[in-house]
């Protein structure tokens, strides 16, 4: 199947004392432009993510954001109840001994106790960058899957629209062939009537008339254009059937479609055939709009 260049996915994760948020988005572009916004200090993370994205995306302006923070449970100091109980017992013993000797001590504040070594456990040490990189590279995979699924879903819609327009061009090309055939007979009758009027006024060289008729027939023949339109229709269907990153090829093909439609209008010499040529151009323009977002 073909895929759209537009996509979005996000995700959350936690581990090794960290929490993080992924955000992956893409829009259409002429080539592949990867922009990664990552925290500093994790060696090899950008290279790993860039290589992974290049494996699954071939075209589009792609932006990957990763925001990280220390886990709340790590940031907050942990109270050690056993150590606190020991400190409180020691404070009580000191106060009792002082009272026995007639000494009055200042009240003990909670902040004084918390400042004592060991009452609050130290926060966890920084995670090993290599281990964190491995965890992050594994955690990004579900985000990539959701991103690619969205591009594939939009790609199916684009493919359906393209197939409708291709069918339209094929139908109109058939109508153009019929109109060209009818036009040829009508043009011949008109020319014969004109020649009869001309003979009544002046002497006409029959050989020159034959040459002019042949030249007019060649200039107005649209068989070649219709044959090329049929070939382009077959090529477009083959590209859609092949799938993958065919956006550039389809873009080139729409230009060829448009070129044949322009030539058909230029050579028509008939209002009905010109109208069909303009309808083909309109269908090709709709195709081009869709193709601009194909990977």
Query: Unreliable runs, pLDDT <50, ≥5 residues?
Result: none
Task: Give Rg in angstroms.
Answer: 39 Å
Distance between the termini: 11 Å
Order of helices and strands: EEEHEHEHHEHHHHH
Largest sheet, strands/sense/barrel: 4 strands, mixed
Strand order of the largest sheet: 1-2-4-3
Shape descriptor? rod-shaped
Number of strands: 6
Q: DSSP strand (E) fraction? A: 5-15%
Helical content band: 55-70%
Give the gist of this structure.
The chain is an alpha+beta fold.
Describe this structure in words.
The chain is α+β, with helices and mostly antiparallel strands. The protein starts with 6 loop residues before the first strand and ends with a helix. The mean pLDDT is about 85.
């Amino acid at each position: 199947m073909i895929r759209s260049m537009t996509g979005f996915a996000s995700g959350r994760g936690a581990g090794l004392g960290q929490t993080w948020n992924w955000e992956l988005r893409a829009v259409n572009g002429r080539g592949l432009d990867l922009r990664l916004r990552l925290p500093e200090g994790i060696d090899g993370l950008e290279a790993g993510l860039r290589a992974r994205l290049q494996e699954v995306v071939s075209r589009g302006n792609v932006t990957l954001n990763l925001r990280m923070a220390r886990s709340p449970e790590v940031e907050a100091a942990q109270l050690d109840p056993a150590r606190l109980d020991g400190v409180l017992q020691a404070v009580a013993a000191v106060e009792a001994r002082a009272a026995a000797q007639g000494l009055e001590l200042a009240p003990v504040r909670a902040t004084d106790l918390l400042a004592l070594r060991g009452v609050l456990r130290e926060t966890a040490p920084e995670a090993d960058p290599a281990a964190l990189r491995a965890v992050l590279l594994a955690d990004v995979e579900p985000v990539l899957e959701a991103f690619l699924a969205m591009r594939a879903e939009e790609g199916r819609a684009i493919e359906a629209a393209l197939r409708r327009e291709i069918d339209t061009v094929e139908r109109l090309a058939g109508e153009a062939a019929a109109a060209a055939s009818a036009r040829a007979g009508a043009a011949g009758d008109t020319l014969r009537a004109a020649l009869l009027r001309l003979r009544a006024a002046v002497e006409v060289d029959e050989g020159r008339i034959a040459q002019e008729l042949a030249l007019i027939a060649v200039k107005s023949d649209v068989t070649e254009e219709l044959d090329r339109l049929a070939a382009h229709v077959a090529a477009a269907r083959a590209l859609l059937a092949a799938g993958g990153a065919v956006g550039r090829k389809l873009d080139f093909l729409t230009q060829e479609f448009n070129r044949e439609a322009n030539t058909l209008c230029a050579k028509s010499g008939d209002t009905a055939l010109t109208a069909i040529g303009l309808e083909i151009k309109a269908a090709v323009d709709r195709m081009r709009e869709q193709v601009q977002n194909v990977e």
